[in-house]
């Protein structure tokens, strides 16, 4: 019993590491030139991972449903872009990723987390 | 997607007939995503709905030859406040319902009146479980939904911790209620009340945080409050009051005495005295008449006038200032990056710590192990607060940037705010920064064979084509004496030295000693007099005709009344003050003596200013450059922090790190002092958040159990809820910060 519980605990730790750090969501939205709608609700950006090409501007249309102040801002790290998101009203943010790499976009408190994967 | 469909209103400029209406409507309807477009000629507005970005509509109307601007403003803010208020009330309800069930249950437990987990008591617990399920659904649903959605996205957030902490307590309680014999007798304790109280307290914490956060954006609210809500427009010959959002481009607006000017525009009839202190800090009203520009938000003190709206909605100076402050408020300086990195891995790390805690209690804990395991694991999950860490920097930046705006300093971003704190040297441009920037002619010294009027005529003729501030002074002096300038030919400005031109066949030179030396014109006999003028803080300029000196025109630019005091305050902050000027050394030294600067770089050509800043940086100084943002632009950009002195209407707003709306050097001192206070506040917040988690998590895990200390999960939940409130409250202290005005002797 004791061994079983300890093994289960270690498996849980392994799963946490794998799920949150090593693997990434399969669902990705690929920028095709058309605006991409992003829903801001329940602690997540949907979609949360967007693939884009370096140097090509993409229009991200955020629609914030979550009224808590945490969701109020979206900040694109390393791109010097931020925007205030009104509740229940679309806000378009145009981003031109300068170089290939991964750029996180988050709320002020980093609870909402999204990613621009630039190729 | 219905969710992305929205309605917008635009003001349309340039329409005069029904044909224009059709053209604008067609242009808007051609934009992909537009479902409906209606243009109103009388109001000069367009209503558009559909899945479309407002910018696309503005561009389409522009291509059709008209002007469009989205009508936004106070309505947006009112909507935001209403949404916040509704959310605040919702949070209080959630707290109230969870507390109303949780606290009585806790009371019964403390009084030892809890029924046993057998017989009728078991039925009581099952009913209690059902009731708490309903309450948790009402008060805590968002945590579970958020946690699940985050999990599916390979994310973990605060919801994850709360959902796991309270969910495991609740599930364990159900297990005990249904099958009590599954666990040892000593561990048979239900945690329904704990789950509810934790959810109640976290909702209360979120509500309190929201309340406190409302205060952090007071500066923005105050700026927005400067905008009037309505405007009196003249449409189709009739005067009517309309909401400010409905004022169209080029519309005629009447402004009566005592009213605030609704939008930016130009006076087309009438005149008045206008209090522009909200932008310039200048307490005395300024006279404005036909053709003068007026700025929305400033106060019309006396007369009534008609103006034409030239900038509306998001384009007004005030709206741009608000946007700049907002954008800076959401940026983050380097100091927050460590916290960001920790925040990014925080929740999964806590999940691992919680699992290790569970294993540690399972392997080494005393009896009842199951109870200890559950309580300690739950407490770890509940006390760990990523929010305090995530909030520590942005909330202080928000208040600090807003505070600086109150003092007329518009800080471009968090990075500039952080760098301003470390400045060691402040470099001041002389003209327009230390001095008024409005020079006037104070002495005319004609050479033999010339008279004052002739000398001034020559000087004004050649300077009429120049845009230099000193040229304006010469031309103004000629105008005052009714001296008409003559037409010159071949005008040429010699950068940093003066001007040359031909007048009635003669070559005329007007400028400094370097210009004369370059042209081999002897000024030796005049050097003594010129030096005396320069020593008195004036700028002597030589005028030569066909290679011979015709005289000296001396111009003085008065020192701003508060420059010396502001520089003394810079010294009090431990800063070294350097003055940089293209003016001659003696004048510069005289001004420097009067205001108390430490070092002077004089006779510096505009292109050399940047080099001087670079040289100071090479000496190890962290340099703040203060200039008027035009010829100082390269130096402002080179400096660690560029301060542009100007007004809200200047293009400088767009280019400097910090823009001082009021033309006083006190703004530099206040921006630096606020920057220091803000960074101090951020450090306090970060320290608090790190210490809180650094001590809280081991405490919750039971590291201090051998000393008899083990945390109750409900206290952990309350502490977690309050940690964000503490950070926001500490940041709010900045609102009361006032830079010291007095200078130490």
Major sheet: arrangement of strands of chain A: 1-4-10-9-6-7
How much is the radius of gyration of chain A in Å? 17 Å
C-alpha-based Rg of chain B, rounded? 35 Å
- End-to-end Cα distance of chain A, whole Å, is 49 Å
Structural class of chain A: alpha/beta
The helix content of chain A, as a percent range, equals 10-25%
Number of helices, where a helix is a run of at least 4 consecutive DSSP H or I residues of chain B: 25
Order of strands, main sheet of chain B, comes to 14-26-25-24-15-22-23
Helix-and-strand structural type of chain B: alpha+beta
Descriptive report:
The complex is a heterodimer of chains A (119) and B (745). By secondary structure, chain A is α/β, with parallel strands linked by helices. Chain A has one helix at residues 2-22, and strands at residues 29-30, 36-41, 44-46, 49-52, 58-64, 73-76, 81-84, 90-95, 101-106, 113-118. Chain A is built from 1 helix and 10 strands. Chain A starts with a helix and ends with a strand. The mean pLDDT of chain A is 88. With 745 residues, chain B is α+β, with helices and mostly antiparallel strands. In chain B, helix 3 (74-110) packs antiparallel against helix 4 and helix 11 (369-383) packs parallel to helix 25 (713-733). Chain B is elongated, with a radius of gyration of 35 Å. The two termini of chain B are 68 Å apart. The mean pLDDT of chain B is 86. Classes of the chains: A alpha/beta (119), B alpha+beta (745). Chains A and B meet through helix 1, strand 5 and strand 7 of A and helix 3, helix 4, helix 6, helix 10 and helix 12 of B.
